[in-house]
Amino acid sequence: MPSRRNFISKAAMLASTSFIPSLKAFSKEDLAAFAAYKPQKTALEMATDEDYWWQIQQAYTVSPQIINLNNGGVSPSPSVVQNAVDRYNKLANEAPSYYMWRIIDQGREPLRENLAKYAGVSPEEIAINRNATEALDTVILGMPLQKGDEIVMCRYDYPNMLHAWRQRELRDGLKINYVELDLPAEDNELIVKKYVEQMTPRTKVVHITHIINWNGQILPSKRIAEEAHKRGIEVLIDGAHSFAHLEYKIPDLGGDYYGTSLHKWLSAPIGSGMLWMKKEKISKIFPLIPNDKPNSDNIRKFENLGTRPFMIEQAIGQALNFQLALGNARKEARLRFLKDYWAKEAKKLPKVKLNTSLKAEFSGALAHFGIEGLEAGKIESELFGKFKIHTSPIKWEKLDGVRVTPHVYTSLQDLDRLLEGVQYLSKL
Ligand SMILES: Cc1ncc(COP(=O)(O)O)c(C=O)c1O
């Protein structure tokens, strides 16, 4: 049984020799050691165990020159995932139609099963695709709806999803009823009430973004879904920012349909995503890219995407292993700790306005802040220009500032540097 001492002493041994590069290429044994590592500490206590997180940092190949605090946009993969993509790519290029379609793709069903197990659903309800946009658009554009049918969503939903529903509004005569949220929010019942107020007898779908990308607000998806179901309304959940970030199984959110990217918090290769829907819903959703049986209840009808890189899909398996080794509870606790580490200090600075709740129920890794008198673009360009810190400028609805998203490889030194930057900006 790997103990904490063995684990750390192995790390110390590797660190004291020149073996760091091999440590970076995590082996199966390394992953097994991480997975089996059962510390005496709780996930919350582990969140501050810098020895452990130092090890995790070594699994990534991120630039030491630039501090990337926009992991919410897209996340890097650990080297074990990058290496898998490279291996599959090299193999595919020996004879693509043979190795990619006949050999590499034999991993599709095992991967579906592993993803389903992780997500707490049946493999017959999981389709592997390229991103959250594709997953969610499959449902939005494939659902049979009629003129006059209504949709409930909010203006803080992701633009691609707003665009997709608005296209249906334009093309099919649907009507969108918008929930007006004030963010950050710390009253779940008020949020639920605002969604319920927009539901009418004509409402067919409620669209919920589980974690709002702009400021990291966690919405009470299950409660909203319960209210929708009481009224016979279906629920589509955008899990792009919560999958492999918060600890939950997809059914816990109460939706009928769910889409996510895997290249965000799972650290899977860039260009990977997943669609889930209840088995009984599959037959009525028309695929975006049809196969020969668009009305079938086989979830695989959503994977008829044409020629695409199966090496990217297959390396999702390595990302999933990495996630399992990290442990969901540990990861969620660490991400929240990193957010709190900088945000609590930044909030105390003059002119700084934190636009994210610091209560665990309402946020995870993502947070947004503004600085009185400075626009989003200015904050972002100063942070990058003077401190080489990459963040995401966000000016959306009532938010004006930058979003900061650390990941499991982010160090406390990186966040100290961010605080230096925010302090500098607060004095401008
Ligand atoms: C809430 C939310 N939904 C959907 C998406 C779309 O993800 P992708 O670009 O991977 O399709 C994003 C991307 O940032 C997002 O933040």
From TrEMBL:
Keyword Cell cycle: no
Top-rank taxon, per record: Bacteria
Record protein name field: Aminotransferase class V
One Pfam family named in its UniProt record: Aminotran_5
Lineage of the organism: Bacteria, Pseudomonadati, Bacteroidota, Cytophagia, Cytophagales
Molecular function (Gene Ontology), one example: transaminase activity
Tagged with keyword Manganese: no
Record InterPro entries: Aminotrans_V_dom, PyrdxlP-dep_Trfase, PyrdxlP-dep_Trfase_major, PyrdxlP-dep_Trfase_small, TAT_signal
Keywords noted in UniProt: Aminotransferase, Pyridoxal phosphate, Transferase
Domain Aminotransferase class V residue range list: 69-384
